[in-house]
Amino acid sequence: MVRLVFHDAGSYSAAAGDGGVNASIRFELDRPDNFGLKRGWNVIEATDKKLKGTAAEGAVSKADLIALAGAYAVRITGGPAIQVAVGRQDAAAADPDGRMPELDFSAEQQLANFAAKGLSAQEFVVLSGSHTLGSKGYGDPVTFDNTYYKTLLQQPWVDKSNEMAQHTGIPTDHVLPDDPTCRPLIQRYAADQAAFFADFAAAYDKMASLGARWA
Ligand code: HEM
């Protein structure tokens, strides 16, 4: 669910002023970037149907449900509580393609990609801590904690004799601990989980509102 928020938000362009959290992801599930997100989208659709006939019908949009579901996933896996405002309008069509980061991006390219969405280096590094969830080798797949940063500093994938360790993380993670902008932030969040949680909550709120048009 957290990945779903990022992929709905990630189409935002600060320069063009379009894209963002508007549930357009439902028209974009066939894009290679969005592989695997159908399952998360189905949960949103099922929840949306359950709102029919309740006080939330018409007040909570599909885009709101995406933002709420991501925050809920963070919370139930042990992460921070995040306040999520509602009232985002849903888009009626897909957002522009080609705005998500690529897996072979350098750290500079990743930072530039996030900067184009109006997100700082600090916000990029703290949001990437979401990779602690899922099965990329950053500790327990359903525990939201700062294992991502601790693992990045250990760089287990450099050990060529350990087949398992080499499968930890994804290429875009691997380049971050050597980057002079990202490294101090990684060190900070590896040493201080409370700081990670507080900064994550703030950055999540910003990401989940990128490009939102409020009713
Ligand atoms: C340069 C930036 C990023 C890239 C290239 C990237 C790419 C990926 C890839 C390839 C996966 C693995 C998908 C799979 O095989 O299961 C993944 C997982 C995930 N990503 Fe990212 N990601 C980035 C940033 C973010 C951000 C900013 C967030 C959220 C705020 C996020 C949330 C997640 C989550 C929660 C998963 C685990 C999904 C699951 O296992 O169900 N990612 N990401």
From TrEMBL:
Oxidoreductase is among the record's keywords: yes
Keywords (A to Z) from UniProt: Oxidoreductase
UniProt KW Oxidoreductase keyword: yes
Record Gene3D superfamilies: 1.10.520.10, Peroxidase, domain 2
GO molecular function: heme binding; peroxidase activity
Every Plant heme peroxidase family profile domain range: 1-215
Similarity comment: Belongs to the peroxidase family.
Name of the protein: Plant heme peroxidase family profile domain-containing protein
